[in-house]
Amino acid sequence: MQARIKWVENVAFLGETGSGHAVLMDGAAEGGGRNLGPRPMELVLIGTGGCAAYDVVHILKKSRAGISDCVAEIQAERADTDPKVFTKIHFHFIVTGKNLKPELVERAINLSAEKYCSASIMLGKTATITHDFEIRET
Fold it and tell me: Where does this protein have coiled-coil stretches (predicted)?
């Protein structure tokens, strides 16, 4: 895996992925930025949420569950002093489908958290990570 980060101006940077995608990161105006893009730590959360949600959907589909949607809402807290690592992260999964069994959804979330999601397992070295979920019927 590769990435390239190029300084654009002030506190704005362009991140380019090895797969050919780009994202502009920037800081808030009070930090010298122009708020042109997400903060790097926001991208860490988005990436982690994407990793976990991917796992949950994949596991449920493999189990032949009738899943039609999955949303991961994430709340996080960071340390007050540098390095301002994440200290608490909570995932709330909203899984929509037909006749979804709670035990199957819980199993998918636990497998992601404990075995498959590299990002959340890595962040778990500094943060307490919790999960909950709700099921919505289609």
Answer: none
pLDDT digits over 36-83, tens only?
999 999 999 999 999 999 999 999 999 999 999 999 999 999 999 999
What is residue 68's three-state secondary structure? strand
pTM, 2 dp: 0.93
Domains of the chain, CATH where assigned: 1-38 (2.20.25.10), 40-137 (3.30.300.20)
Nearest Cα to Cα of residue 90 among 63, 130, 121:
130
